[in-house]
Amino acid sequence: MPLQQRRRGIRVVGASVALVGLLAGCSGAGGSSSSGGEETLNVLMVNNPQMVELQKLTADNFTKETGIKVNFSVLPENDVRDKITQDFANQAGQYDIATISNFEVPFFAKNGWLHSLDEYTEKDKTFDQADILKPLQESLTAEDGKLYGQPFYGESSFLMYRKDVFEAKNLTMPAKPTWKEVADLAAKVDGAQKGMRGICLRGLPGWGEVIAPLTTVVNTMGGTWFTKDWEAQLTSPEFTKATKFYVDLVRNHGEAGAPQAGYAECLNNMTQGHSAMWYDATAGAGSLEAKGSPVKGKIGYVPAPVDKTDSSGWLYTWAWGMQKASKKTESAWKFMSWASGKEYEKLVGEKIGWSNVPAGKRASTYTNPDYLKEAGAFAEVTKDAIANANPTDPGTQPRPTVGIQFVDIPEFTDLGTKVSQEISAAIAGKKSVEDALKVSQALAEKVGKKQQ
């Protein structure tokens, strides 16, 4: 069954977006208009390394080829999510395009905030929609069967480790590690080099920050946020065990300043030799193997650690979404097609380096000899992780909706963020895991009752 058909029953407008949902009355305005002579696009996007590279390449390539100028607004992940939700809900058309994810697509599409893309992919044969990896296509298709996003890159999660450090300590990383094995290894490599900690794990508040890796640990250790009947489970033995494991691991062997460390901080720690291991997004590997990286060629890559499940990697994509109210849809599609196209991957490969290519979205990327020559260390592991991700059944018990590292309901942005603040406080030693989860359970119960 297609992924979008398994989203039935999702409440479209919840507590976290109730206000902005009321503002979306003009959501159809200007949706089908063309560029109308306007040759400037406004793009709102997250500040991940691949997006920063895109920003640098746009003027000399896309604008030069098309005459279409692009104004970028670039913000950190937590900030950009809030701004995108606000702008797209208002449907004022301030931004023509924004980076959205497979989390937002179901309810953004249902609320009429996005322009469907099927008409463009059907006409634009050079884009080759069939080349987009199936898990990503499904995750960006809404319940109505229409496509609402084009992936800039796709990712799962895996474990990255310093091969040279492990060799020096006579340690072997298992081909498919368990979390217990990872914890044991973290203790052994902690302090292996001056200023080096055993592992880096996100501790920064945010439903897309600490909650993402933590929830994969919860899943594989037998826990879940909600039962299939929306009963909150944050104080269950399984959820508690997984959270205590995560918090203890990062407190005992994790990075300095963990409560303020997210994806960007862990990437920097791994690049600068401050961490021997890092569990996070597969997209991070491109930066680690980039030209000039101090750790290029020193990193090994293995699947996401497990406990009770066969796999535990998440499924995520930063994708381009077109605001329904945009009056520059034809120009917007030209940019989306370029930024998610094969030629852009080739451009990055030739100008910046093939390991920097925003991968994880096209089957052809993984048969490209130029890409495989530079990204061979992590290419196959990434592709397998995406293929093995199971958003409909990521744990050991039935779920009420899809999602691996999140619960795919609008209310999760607010719930996940509030719970993340509790977890970060526990990582900081300001409260116990039990107290943090007690508060979190009460928050989750309110959300669960609204879903029932």
Automatic annotation (TrEMBL):
Keywords: Signal
Gene3D superfamilies given in the database record: Periplasmic binding protein-like II
Family annotation (PROSITE patterns): PROKAR_LIPOPROTEIN (PS51257)
InterPro entries in UniProt: Bact_solute-bd_prot1 (IPR050490), SBP (IPR006059)
Signal peptide residues on this chain, from the entry's feature table: 1-29
Pfam families given in the database record: SBP_bac_1
Domain of life: Bacteria
PANTHER family (alphabetical): ARABINOSE-BINDING PROTEIN-RELATED, DIACETYLCHITOBIOSE BINDING PROTEIN DASA
Official protein name in the record: Sugar ABC transporter substrate-binding protein
